[in-house]
Amino acid sequence: MSFEYMKKCHIPLIIIRSIERDSRQNFLNERFQALKLVSHWIETDPQSVPKGFLRSLVSIATYSPDDQMKKPAIEILRKGAIACTEQCAWLGGIRVLIDSVFDPTCSDISESIVLTLLYLINDPKTRAYIRGGDIGRLLYIFTEVTGNDKEVRRESLEKLHAQLQLGKQAMIIMLKNWGGLIFLASDVNGLKSLVEALNQPIRTIVKKAIFEIFFNLLDVNIKSDKAENLLLQYVTTVIRTFDQCQICHILIAVATSAEEEIAEEARNLLKQYISLASNLFSIEAKLLPLIEMASGSSNASLQFGAARTLRELSNGIVRDGFELRRRFSEYFLRAVDYVETTDGSYMKSGNTWGLLRAELDYEMDNTQFLGLIKATNVSTYKNDETRWDWNLILELFENNLQKSSRIEEALNVIFIEPLLRYFQPGKGKFNEKPWIPENFIYAKVGYYMIKSLLKIKKGREYLKTVHDGCRKSFIECYAEQLAIQLTWAKAIRENTKLPEVENALNKENMTTKMIREYISWLGLFTQNKKAFKLLSTSNILNYLEKLADTYCLSDHICMLITSVFNYSSEKEPRDLLRAWTQKGSKDLILYIIEHIRTLYRNKVNGFELWCVDILVELINGKDNDIVLRALDVLNEICEEKQLLYEVLSKQPQIDKLQLAGDELLIKLLCTEPGVKYLQNVDWIDGAVKKWIERGNNEYAESTERAIYTELNANTSNTIEGSLLLYIPSSWILNIRNDVRIIISID
């Protein structure tokens, strides 16, 4: 008997009546057989399944909690969600499945339901039927604000424990799946609400459950650094997603709270998150609120909690009987350095920092300090770097040698000079080492060494002094390498004979060898005026300005310098950037424009004093790509009225501004100076005339067309008629419609 014939004979009505019979035992077999027929119908011909079947299943699953047929009904609905998604969604089947995930009576099929939901999420066509409100139903067990544990009866508390176990299992499965992770991260009520729940007045057991979910996600062991490693890609996505949810801000607030049990969990999670995140992006700014609380809070309890959190972000090591206690963790030191070079709201006086350092630091006497220096073997084997203890050297520079007094002590013994000879630009042994992770420890030592020397006058003089075994000083070797690069670039431009001296800063070396680190270290010289003076007096700044040309011969150097220079205080780095935009190649100028966007987003001090000038100059140029890119950045910075006024004060060309479209011009119309500017350039009258002639009609027609389309929309299973998944603009995704396999990471 065919299904169509059964429908003509109204047999589905009989089946529905059998399904919905009383739940007494004597009707059990009849109901069970009816459900088997419905299941077979869905599997065999899902497109012809009567809606009444699905309504009955939804009714049993929703309104009959003690019905023996509830679990079979949910299992059949799960099949229906895959086979006839549209009907199942419109009749409430998807909602029933989501609610069943947290139902203790359905615990044995909870995982299957979650996998079914992931299957639907993985396909854009079926994903449309999981609506925005459904995300809230997935997370309500974690985000519902309730009273304390004592207010809950024992039976309710046991049920809550069971629901939390199912909820944790469901969230871990979803977040360890690409489709589930993106789905939860792309909605404001998704993963972000789960993170924010940690700082809300919810039950302690619920907060612990959320911490367990996050610990499970971050407890990974990445054995490969290759970009194609799927696990590495996944971890990167998780870290970036947590960053968008402002997890550091939330965890710092929880870690410094009075609820010690939860605060301890927050400190451990923060430590785990930072250890992973620090390999992907700069973490310094994320710790500024913590340092602010630890150094200047009027609340003694809050200050103690912040200081304790900072301590626990560090670790300890033991070498040669000396305990080098890292009360200054690497992240803390980097955050302090970030503050000391940023004129921002977290800037503290030297006395305040001194109090904080005194509270956190461990004072080592002079004998112990000199013993550690000797233990590095630098003084014993001055010319054999293979016998030096590089790990101990790095520890010293990261901790004790951050203090000016210790740096001076190190300069008085045989320690810095052999290191400086090893790192000599152009001739040192460090230059030729391959740029691979195994050699990054040498780069870190060089970075901290130069950084430490630039802090004190004696250290800066040391960099200008010619030492034994060196024909020039460290800073003179810097200038020499840049001069060689300019000579080679000139010979290539003029098609003349290439110089005999080797060019260490060529593009191949900068890509494959440690020589590139020397260019990165130039950024250290821009952190304060006294250090920057070394670049001016050694002619390095003059060489840098000449690097830019339209032949792209030194773009690899210019781009790296652009990203490492500090533009918050000194005028010269800003002037250098402007000079490069005037005579550099197209690729270099586009790179600088994007870096200006980054500077704006990071709220660099004095941004409006110079960046707006550069952007306005660039939009008046002739290259259309450069003009459009500069306009795009201008459009973004004009979100702030102060910067918008600064742009207007430069009187940009209206024909150039119009290339950015109406959005930028509308922003100008929102301010009185903007209206005056548009009146002066006769734009408003032309825009009004255009609106009267055709704009009004076009707007009315497009509005009516949109209303007509929505009212007569085809509700068929198509992407065009679906509720599409919103994905943040910072995610670069390529969603293939033909992919149906769900990759789950265990």
Query: For the CA atoms, what is the radius of gyration?
Result: 33 Å
Note the gap between the termini: 46 Å
User: What sort of overall outline do the alpha carbons produce when their principal axes are compared?
Assistant: globular
* Helicity level: 55-70%
The side-by-side strand order for the widest beta sheet comes to 1-2
Q: Could you describe the largest sheet, including whether it forms a barrel?
A: 2 strands, antiparallel
Low-confidence runs of at least 5 consecutive residues? 315-329, 339-363, 715-746
Strand elements, count: 2
Number of helices, counting only DSSP H or I runs of 4 residues or more: 42
- Alpha-beta classification: mainly alpha
Whole-number total of structural domains:
5
Mean pLDDT: 78
Per DSSP, what share of the residues sits in E-state strands of 2 or more residues?
under 5%
Overall description:
This protein has 746 residues and is an all-alpha fold. The protein folds into 5 domains: 1-101; 102-281 and 715-746, no CATH class; 364-574, no CATH class; 585-680; 682-713. Helix content is 63%, strand content 1%. The chain has a two-stranded antiparallel ribbon with strand order 1-2. A hairpin with a 2-residue loop joins strand 1 and strand 2. Helix 33 packs parallel to helix 35. It is globular and about 100 Å long.
